[in-house]
Design goal:
The chain is of the alpha+beta class. It contains four helices and 15 strands. The C terminus is likely disordered. InterPro entries: PsdUridine_s_RsuA/RluB/E/F_cat, PsdUridine_synth_cat_dom_sf, PsdUridine_synth_RsuA/RluA, PsdUridine_synth_RsuA/RluB/E/F, PsdUridine_synth_RsuA/RluB_CS, RsuA_PseudoU_synthase, TruA/RsuA/RluB/E/F_N. Its EC number is 5.4.99.-. Keywords: Isomerase. Belongs to the pseudouridine synthase RsuA family.
């Protein structure tokens, strides 16, 4: 069996072919006969697990096994405690209410790579980062959740799935899982639930240390009025 993780770049499809000619996993991963576990949106970034282990694919993709996925979300505005509570309890998206989530404001802005296309932001509205942990897999769920409470998502990164984390992988880089990681992943998939102590591997910086460059773009953000 083969097990790999990839740091999927922005505007890359989580599949190996595309008739429209858009970037896919094939442009980055050279290992044959492995497939992504679940999906990560075209305009989202971060950890994608790839394997030929069909049993593991099913367990990690099926919400009933409750394997927790961690997202770092840069939103427009500073969410109120009421908005955060709504996210934690579940919000209604059309006819469905999302399951309870683990949600917190990140006190320090995550030190992540510059996105290939800078985010669009409004000069008179601040941004901040929120960590959201969910086990569901609704279409564009995190973006729809933050929009439902009035704070649109500007950038979305997935640093971890269960016990797996990106560590120092840069966009487009991938690596094989260690035997220990494979054992941990199979254990958590078998019993369901999250892995305590999971760490994304990225450092954070104190708010204000990059004054005038909020948003994690290293000063390369695009402003709209």
């Amino acid at each position: 069996m083969k097990y790999y993780i990839l740091n999927k770049p922005y505007e890359v499809l989580t599949q190996f072919t595309d008739e429209a000619g858009r970037a896919t996993l094939k442009d980055y991963v050279e290992v044959p006969d492995i497939y992504p576990v679940g999906r990560l949106d075209y305009d989202s970034e971060g950890l994608v697990l790839l394997t030929d282990d069909k049993t593991l694919q099913h367990r990690l993709s099926d919400p009933q096994f409750k394997v927790e996925k961690t997202y770092w979300v840069q939103v427009e505005g500073i969410p109120t405690e009421e908005a955060l509570t709504r996210l934690r309890l579940g919000v209604r998206i059309k006819e469905t209410k999302t399951a309870p989530a683990k949600v917190r404001l990140l006190e320090e802005e995550p030190q992540v790579w510059e996105r290939s296309t800078p985010i669009r932001f409004r000069a008179n509205i601040p941004t901040c980062w929120v960590e959201i942990k969910i086990a569901q897999g609704m279409n564009r769920q995190v973006r729809r959740m933050t929009a439902a409470v009035g704070y649109p998502t500007l950038r979305l990164i997935r640093p971890a799935i269960g016990p797996l984390h990106l560590g120092g992988l840069q966009p487009g880089e991938y690596r094989e899982l260690t035997p220990e990681e494979i054992t941990q992943l199979k254990a958590i998939a078998a019993k369901g639930g999250s892995s305590k102590g999971s760490n994304s591997g990225f450092r954070s910086r104190t708010p204000g240390s990059d004054k005038g460059k909020r948003g994690g773009q290293g000063g390369f953000r695009k402003q709209i009025n």
